[in-house]
Write a structure and sequence with these properties.
alpha+beta, Rossmann fold, OB fold (Dihydrolipoamide Acetyltransferase, E2P), 6-stranded mixed β-sheet, globular
């Protein structure tokens, strides 16, 4: 990860152009029908079906190697699928009988490493993505895009003269300057320092919303996805495991894998009996798990409540770490083999070694069949 000086953090926040000036695109829908992608013996995509509405902002989320970047490259035309069809506005651009080259798809693509041409100036890099216009109009469109990202003054500079955050902004300008119907972005914030990333992400999302382009953004960071997307598509082993708004995936995950991807948990592994499991906090209903099956009870750190000693389950604070808005505590609790992790409001400090009472918010407890490795 690149680390930037404070003056770049300041520029990353204040150096962008006026909002509302990015220029509107005509968004188109994007569809994937039974997409397979194989590289020798490796299957990167395994029957992906996905429809993205015109103007929708979707994040493809998942761990490294799950197929999310491969799906993006298939959409762009950088890779031809082994099987299945890609549709843009209902028109087939990749399939058994047809393949449309990337430059003819009306798609803007922003690579993870930005892929700026080192021998071209900033302005020439942005002009490179604009086709079919007279030279003067191409230059004007490129300068408008650079002005929106706050880099019109750097038009004659070269990529090696720019910081990492500025290179990211040039790549964004190049992607949106042609006003594509679909904008594809592969891990656009992964190379940025965390403090700079927050500012750049906010302004990048503003640009995306201004253009109105259908946007597909690859990320491995659940927080990025929840901050950016209308809909999150979580992938695993080349397949979609759950798709929906961020709140839905966080609050109502379809599987233990999805739940773990979005949150850390205190987990209790036990056996269901008569529609319930017994825990140190009492009985918890498991209506969808048959008798004798193993269940995992998931309790988020913020769903654990600390009370005065003598109330609820007895516990003792093993460690405490101040994180600003919250304290992260490790608390040894009667009935558990290992300490529970708890996120407690900082205004209710509990010292290490203190005796406490421990309770849970039952409405925030999740229950899953124990089928995950």
């Amino acid at each position: 990860m690149t680390v930037f000086a404070d003056n770049e953090i300041e520029r990353g926040w204040r150096g962008w152009g006026r909002r509302g000036t990015a220029g509107a695109s005509i968004p188109v829908s994007c569809g994937f029908e039974n997409i397979w992608q194989r590289f020798g013996d490796v299957t990167a995509l395994a029957g992906v079906d996905l429809t993205i509405d015109a103007g929708e902002v979707v994040c493809l989320l998942g761990q490294s190697g799950c197929g999310k970047s491969t799906l993006l490259r298939v959409a762009a035309g950088v890779e031809r699928p082994s099987a299945g069809r890609v549709l843009l506005d209902g028109r087939e651009v990749a399939g058994p009988e047809r393949f449309v080259d990337p430059e003819r798809r009306g798609v803007g693509l922003m690579f993870q490493d930005y892929a700026l041409f080192p021998h071209l100036s900033v302005l020439e890099n942005v002009c490179y993505g604009i086709r079919g216009l007279p030279a003067a109009d191409t230059r004007a469109s490129a300068l408008r895009a650079l002005d929106r990202v706050g880099l019109a003054a750097m038009a004659d500079a070269y990529p090696h003269m720019l910081s990492g955050g500025e290179q990211q902004r040039v790549a964004l300008a190049r992607a949106v300057a042609p006003r594509p119907g679909v904008l594809l972005m592969d891990e656009p914030f992964s190379n940025l320092d965390r403090r700079l990333k927050d500012a750049v992400r906010e302004e990048t999302v503003a640009v995306i919303r201004e253009t109105g382009a259908t946007s597909v953004i690859v990320t491995h960071d659940p927080e990025d996805a929840m901050r950016i997307a209308d809909r999150i598509v979580l992938m695993r082993h080349g397949q979609i495991v759950q798709s929906g708004p961020g709140e839905e995936l966080y609050m109502r995950p379809a599987s233990l894998f999805v739940a773990r991807f979005f949150s850390d948990f205190n987990e209790i592994s036990t056996t269901a009996r008569g529609g319930f499991v017994d825990t140190p906090f009492g009985r918890i209903a498991t209506p969808d798990i048959a008798d004798g099956q193993r269940a995992v009870i998931c309790i988020r750190p913020q769903a654990v409540v600390l009370r005065a000693a003598g109330f609820c389950l007895p516990g003792r604070v093993v460690s405490r770490r101040f994180l600003g808005e919250v304290d992260v505590l490790q608390v040894a609790v009667q009935g558990f083999d290992r300490p529970l992790t708890i996120r407690a409001p900082e205004h209710k400090p509990f010292a290490e070694g203190a005796d406490v009472g421990v309770d849970i918010k039952r409405e925030e407890v999740l229950v899953f069949l124990d089928s995950e490795p």
